[in-house]
Amino acid sequence: MFTFKQVLYKDILNIDELHIDEKSITALIGESGTGKSTLLKLMNHLIACTDGTISYKGTPVEELDAVKLRRDAAMLSQTPVLFGETVRENLEAGLLFSEKTLPSEKEMIDAMQRYYLEKNLDDKADKLSGGEQQRLALARITLLDPEVFLLDEPTSALDDELEHDVMERFMAYAQDNEKTVIFVTHSQSIAEEFSDTIIDITPYSKKGRD
Amino acid sequence: MYLFENPHPLWTTLVVLLMVTFAIWNIYKRVRSDLDKKMKQIIAVSMAAGTLSSLIYFNFIVIQFSPWYEPRYFIPIAGMIIGNSMTGVTLGVQTLTEGMKDQRQRVEAALMLGAAPKEASRKIVNQAFDNAILPTINSMVGTGIVFLPGMMTGQILAGVNPVTAIEYQIAILLGVTGAVSLTVILFVQNGYKVFFNEKSQLEEK
Known about the structure:
- The structure holds two protein chains of two kinds.
- Chain A contains eight helices and nine strands.
- Chain A is α/β, with parallel strands linked by helices.
- Chain A has a single domain (2-209), classed as Rossmann fold (3-Layer(aba) Sandwich).
- Chain A is globular.
- The two termini of chain A are 30 Å apart.
- The relative contact order of chain A is 0.22.
- By secondary structure, chain B is mainly alpha-helical.
- Chain B has one domain.
- Chain B has helices at 2-5, 9-30, 37-63, 71-102, 104-112, 117-120, 122-142, 150-157, 162-191.
- Chain B starts with a helix and ends in a 14-residue tail after the last helix.
- The chains are: A alpha/beta, B mainly alpha.
């Protein structure tokens, strides 16, 4: 799905060769500051590599329409961001951004409940705790239903038990719908339990090599 | 005095262009953050296009005085249109640049989900437009009840029939509002693009 060839990004990443399979679940691990988020951003083409080629389905990302690529391979940022005041506006935001049809109320409630979030659609989103906002953001990207999920520590604000349960629900959805998932995690156990492949980014990063 | 006593199309045009140039220069000075070259170009183009086209429309189609270059009319009307647009664009530039800086994370998060730059910055662009247009709208709403505009007061003091003075003032207010809106729309609709590159990525600051 994604192929990296001699990719250089500033003095942060230096990847000789890396391949990420379609319909697989890949965990990115490594110490903080090694460039895990940067790697996701490169795949989302939110930033361009300094040198080398990153291909998506065989085409270099530079040659693709960046906005279209991001609708295919959507990314979730590490800190959840609120779009709008209410829970409803937040769930609709992703679909508005990507110009898709808005979800029904039931779909939105289901998406939240999938991640154990029991909220009303008209609740104020800024009253939600950090962990709840993270799950809201995960529900938002799930409603978007992209082919590839690029998740940057999607459950970092949750306690271990809830983190495990939420990841379990998400991965079940991803497998049922044959999604490609690339996620960053700090938790070795989460990486081992839920991914087909674990990529330790340390050898690719300048910080790791030093 | 010379200018008003010896109307000439060249002089009138020159004075108006000078006013626009000064207004643009003033915007560059007023805005606190550093403006890059592209942003300066957009400010200059929207100011020139917005104010001059409104001025032409207002003078040639709405008021229709003759000769068209009569400085007695042309210059004060130009002054009001250019001055108010200058204030509007200054506020617009300020809000837009600060918004893109403060809400960078939000804009980036929207891009990640597949938003086009226009959609990702829509909230900031709208905010910039609202802030830019606020003084003009406020003065329009308050006119006649809260404060009496200088032009109208001046005309009444000079002995003009108050109804005529009021009519003129209303026409001017509408003209100014239209001009400011046009200038600010031109600016915000192009200004946000400066923050993105052709790959729909946020420019590094």
